[in-house]
Design a protein that fits this description.
With 263 residues, the protein is of the alpha+beta class. The chain has seven helices and 13 strands. It has one domain: Phenylalanyl-trna Synthetase, Chain B, domain 3 (Phenylalanyl-tRNA Synthetase, Chain B, domain 3, 3-Layer(bba) Sandwich), CATH 3.50.40.10. Helix 3 runs parallel beside helix 6 and helix 6 runs antiparallel to helix 7.
Length: 263
């Protein structure tokens, strides 16, 4: 992304999230929510909030193993349907829960990440957090062509396998591989991040209700911890598979719009 595009994101413009029609057709049980927040910073203290949600995760893990949680079982079935071995490639929530169950705590990375990771633990639902300034136009969750560049956290460039599910932006860059398995280092949250796109997705039986509750909780908690932030959210479905978030620099107001798929 060039400097002018970065300025558009940080000081006004729009960013979208959508899932392809092909993906909805194959996975009609998918429920997704998106939250867009501006004016975040790395100085917020989320210790108390993160602790509350970590305690919820502990209670759930005291009654069930990670593999027994219905949210995780659904993603395992989804990964298997994509031709991936579920015990080799895990959704982000399962990876977090397994580490949490083993270590009893989660590492501190950035307050936005710490809060969203704690929520992911409590809900057992994968949550992706992207630096909006690194996204060109918006994100489409779709099957890969195989030529999209993906930057690892180690600084290496990879390319997804053809037909792999990725988060692709308008420039064709992959911001996540294997759907909810691994995000890119390109759009990772940094100390200078100010605009964030948060995405939560689930497949289990009560996914729609749980995603609605999780999205509302993310919106509320971000607003509490970043009091100067503007926060907007949207639910995505097969009939309304696209959400657009726009904001104006003169008023700092974020607005969301759910749209039907453009063909």
């Amino acid at each position: 992304m060039d400097l002018s595009s970065r300025r558009d994101v940080l000081h006004g413009g729009a960013v979208y999230l959508q899932h392809s029609a092909r993906l909805w057709a194959q996975f009609p049980d998918l429920a997704a929510g998106a939250v867009f927040v501006t004016s975040v910073h790395n100085r917020a203290d989320v210790t108390a909030q993160a602790g509350v949600f970590a305690d919820i995760a502990r209670e759930r893990l005291a009654a069930n193993t990670v593999a027994e949680l219905p949210e995780i079982q659904a993603w395992r079935r989804t990964f298997a349907a994509m031709g991936l071995k579920p015990t080799q490639y895990r959704c982000a929530a399962e990876a977090l829960l397994r580490r949490f169950a083993k270590e009893g705590a989660q590492p501190s990375i950035h307050p936005v990440i710490d809060l969203c990771n704690a929520l992911s633990l409590a809900f057992a639902i994968p949550i992706a957090v992207f630096d909006a300034a690194k996204i060109t136009e918006g994100l489409t969750v779709r099957r890969a062509n195989g030529d999209e560049p993906y930057l690892t956290f180690g600084g290496e460039t990879e390319h997804p396998q053809p037909d792999e599910v990725i988060f692709a932006d308008g420039a064709g860059r992959a911001h996540a591989r294997r759907w909810t398995n691994r995000q890119s280092g390109w759009s990772a949250i940094r100390d200078d991040t100010t605009a964030v796109l948060v995405v939560a997705e689930a497949m289990h039986e009560s996914a729609a209700a749980d995603i609605a509750r999780l999205t509302a909780t993310i919106t509320e908690e971000l607003g509490k911890c970043w009091t100067a932030a503007t926060v907007s959210s949207a639910a995505l479905s097969q009939s309304a598979p696209r959400a657009e978030f726009s904001w104006r620099p003169d008023r700092g107001v974020a607005r969301s719009r759910r749209c039907r798929l453009r063909r």
